[in-house]
Known about the structure:
heterodimer; A: 289 residues; mainly alpha; ABC transporter involved in vitamin B12 uptake, BtuC; two-stranded antiparallel ribbon; globular; B: 317 residues; two-stranded antiparallel sheet; 15 helices; 1% strand
Amino acid sequence: MLYELVQSTVSGLLIGAAFAVLSVGFSLTWGVTQVLNIAHAAFALLAAYLGYFASSYFQVDPVLVLVVIVPLFFVLGVGIHQVLIKITAQRAHDLALSSMILTFGLAVVMENVMQVLWTPDPRVLKTSYTGKAIFVGPIAIATTHLISFVLAMLTIALLYVFVHHTLTGKAVRAVWQNPTGAALSGVNMGRVTNITYGIAVATAGIGGVVMSLIYTFDPSTDMVWLVYIFLVVILGGVGSVLGALLAGLIIGLTVGISGVFIPLVWVNLVLFLALILLLLLRPSGLLQR
Amino acid sequence: MLVGLAILLVLALLPLARPSTYFLGFMLILFMYAALASSWNILGGFTGYLSFGHAAFFGLGAYTTALLLFYLKWSPFWTMPLGGLVAAVFAALVGYPCLRLRGPYFSLVTLILTLAVSIIILNAPWTKGAFGMFLPFPPVDIFTNHVIFYEVMLALMVLAALVARQIERSKLGMGLAAIRENEDVAQTLGVNVTWLKMEVFLISAFLTGMIGGIYSYYISYLHPSFVFDTLISINIVLMALFGGRLTWLGPLLGASILSVVNEILTLQVEAQLARIVFGLLLIGVIIFLPDGIMAAAAPFIRRLLGQSRRRLRPSSG
């Protein structure tokens, strides 16, 4: 029992970091621009597919594909903002709700295009290190989990440094805290929102590759991932990088540890009920001051 | 008014022309979505609380009548109000805390509630879970069967539309509009926002549950993934928004147009493409028609309803 507990704590933490990197971009766009990008998980899924095809057809490691995915998704994010979000922001009475519906439409389109192109078959990513593990004493750590953990932590650390220690990052935070004040202080709003979208969608790409190292996926998996994103963002507080990390780890732990005590089907229910409870008690997030 | 009654009469008498069962089946699903979108709109359109989880009420109603039929042999035609009641009781349980949330938080919590309910139903022993439940057909031939469901769905659509219309023109409707425009101000001015929101949440859930109660009997094989489907919730939202969510007529219009579009695309091309077009429509509506096609078509419809215009808008004169 104790062994199982330690083992699932370790793997829960590793998985939690993946949840965090998957969600942090969603949290940023929500915080900075009041847009709930439902298609965030669909972008992650797209990256997972790109990684999968690179590794199965060209024997390229999916982690290396990130060199292409990150800049590509950055441009994609800027594009989404320029083409769709900007117009919506100008016309909508209530941006949060309108954007939610708009990006839901986008997610439905992406999901079904992926289904047409790549069939609904579930995919399992096979890398050279899949199925291998590192042993720390009696505790086994799957190599894929370890790599995804390192990748996730690296991304979050870079993002944290960007948001808190660069001028552009500080502008992003300023817009998040007070858009009018930021604009009055000479922050270039268009540039800041473009960068926010670029970074958000780029991290979605990393999140997708990281998740594909751990889980199987198919064209409708984005809805499952979306629920994890909601959990992380609401627990961690909207717009917070560190909050997303902490929340991701907590949720990973919850999934890991509750899996020891209750059957797997009920784990999701526990998560959902926890989220509902959290929304009702502290809608601003547990980790927000 | 007269035009509306005439359309209704034609629809009600349509089965006399002995159309194909396929056509009746298509029409009754159209009526169902029109009824669902109307019920949703009381909350989502009039009040501005966009529920992304109406499939929960739909599914609860469906399972209520299905279980009563399966275990007690009670006909859903009589038990469908019970389906609505179960949905309304569930709404009452979750309503007070959920309706304190605003904007996207409310939408998120309703979405996740549906997933939670779906997991419970899927794993409960008496619902046959993932095996699904086979329900007996009504003891009539297939054409009569379709005619019965056609008329019942039509009646439900009329009921939902009438309720929405009545609410829109009542004092309740004005209170809801006040909540939609600015809830804090409404509360300050003495609108009992908590009770009004609860009231329409229950009405909306009740109607949705009743519709679900009949749907399960019609499809005769019930599986949690059929009725607790997020796509159903989203279709309802899309139809209401597409039609226009500020009037009772909007959701009916939206559901009719989108059902036809969906059917043509699914038949002529394939289901996937239909969904892609659906997604594109969703994007297009938000960008080009934020108030729905009702706003664009209002002058035409007003001319169509000609003489009753003054009665339509008593407050605007």
